[in-house]
Amino acid sequence: MHGRARSHVLLAVLMACLAAGLLYPIALTIGGAFRSDDGSFTLHHVRSVFEEASTRRGLLNSALIAVLTTAAATALAVPVAVLVSRFAFPGRSLLRPLLLVPLVLPPFVGAIGVRHLLGRAGAVNALIGTDIDWLGQGGLPAIVAMEAVSLFPVLYLNVAAALANVDPALEESARCMGAGPWARFRRVTLPLVRPGLFAGATIVFIWSFTELGTPLMFEFYDVTSVQILNGIREVEASHRPYALTAVMLACSVAIYALGKAAFGRSAAAMQGKATVRRQEVELSGWRAAGASSALAAVAAVAVLPAVALILAAVTVPGQWYRSVLPQSFTLAHFGQALSHPLSAGSIRNSLLLSAVATALALGVGFLSARLLVRARLRAAWALDALVMLPLAVPGLVLAFGYVAASLRWPFGGPEAPLGGVASILGAAPRPFAFLAVAYAVRRLPYVVRSAAAGLEQTSEELEEAGRVAGGSRARVQWRITVPLVAANLVAGALLAFSFSMLEVSDSLVLAQREADYPVTKAIFTMYERLGDGPGIASALGAWAMALLAVTLLGATVLLGTRMGALFRA
């Protein structure tokens, strides 16, 4: 078969796989939202989402959390990115890595530590001698603060990368025309970094708008994500959960599309524009002290949830009550987190699920990246859109779509051939296949972007030389291309594996039985148990944080400055 024909066949196979694992669950969700009981089209279910006070309030709260989180994360990320990228001052090299600590701590896990800090009997009240209910009314301010701190590194990485691409000659020209520092930043620098800023802000907005774990941890149930989770129980008898999920999907895709339409081309156009190396401004005296203090303050805020989580993990049950620090310490929880039946089983489940998901994402991701970079097919835009779609589609929406798929043939219904192999609801669920596919689909964009970056830096002439020497296409790929992009593939695999280990939405929705719990659902379940449950949950979260820290460090070493591009919508 001719090479171009093979590429078209491979494109069709990949599109079919992505359609089955991504578009089909979404289609079922949308179909359920607009289908009446007799199978006809209706707008009643979607209209009821906006008419009912509870669901309308949930949407407004979700939108409020997303707007406030994005604003707070932007207010943190932009000044810090400018400070770190443009100026040299004492302590910068030591403090800069601390800014990325929130990336290794999922927001809902960090919420465990924050509750110890902000509860009525928490460390903050003990420090200042008050009895303020910082988590009052369900803790909406605490949710915003937790998510802003957790997600601001995504914005920071995007803005820092955009600043690195700004040509210093443009700012120098403005300076020569008499523009002051603020005018140069506002009229030259900010418009040039706006695409990177908006790309990161899009991810932050969608993530915080659809976040499930953090509201659950703060017992704030008046948000759409929690209402969807609660609606899983009535999914076989009601269209309301479908309508809620469809509305959430529409909002997320609209925000993603807005970002792409407004800044997509300009973001691509600005890359690689710098013509000369920027000279950092050396600060001294009070300016250096102020810069160091400001960066230290942000770094302290960034690491505070992680520190609080570790303190909660080493606290003897009941010994961190109305005190700034725990009164008694123990390391027993770390051992129990690895040996307790629920947590040990969840670790095994997550390791196996993440390994399978990573293998799937790596195979599909490499083939997709190669088609996008090398094949130059007219229909490649459709594949590019599909592999990036998981960035715009919330994990909760996909998880709900898999629940809907499990109720239909070939998994559900009479005489379903795969009902005994893969199922989610029922007396004896078997969610492994759904979880593995969900994890793989959710992390596919990271693998594709990482692999594509490697292929773009690898000369196509090397592959041509291998084919001229008589090697088959498969042999050339295995012996030449894969070794050359191995670092990128390993980086993408590390990210896919570690983020799958700590996936929240899919785990909370698809795993309904304790024997099937992944790590994140085990953490949530353990935290709700009395006695040593919160301590074990904290220790399990600390172990997970350590895993993610190691894998992210490895990916950063392998990808270098290209790491930030993976966290861009």
Based on the structure given, which CATH architecture of the largest domain is correct? Orthogonal Bundle
Mean of the pLDDT scores? 85
Kindly report how far apart the N and C termini lie.
Answer: 37 Å
CATH superfamily of the largest domain: MetI-like
Give an overview in words:
- The structure is a single chain.
- By secondary structure, the chain is mainly alpha-helical.
- It has 2 domains: about 1-30 and about 330-569, MetI-like fold (Orthogonal Bundle); about 45-320, MetI-like (MetI-like fold), CATH 1.10.3720.10.
- It contains 24 helices and 2 strands.
- It has helices at about 5-35, 45-50, 55-85, 90-95, 105-120, 125-130, 140-165, 170-175, 180-210, 215, 225-230, 240-270, 285-315, 330-340, 340-375, 380-390, 395-405, 430-455, 460-470, 475-485, 485-500, 505-510, 520-525, 535-560; strands at about 85-90, 280.
- It has a two-stranded parallel ribbon with strand order 1-2.
- The radius of gyration is 25 Å and the shape is globular.
What structural keywords apply?
single chain, 569 residues, mainly alpha, MetI-like fold, 2 domains, two-stranded parallel ribbon, 24 helices, 2 strands, 1% strand
Outline of the structure:
The protein has 569 residues and is mainly α. It contains 24 helices and two strands.
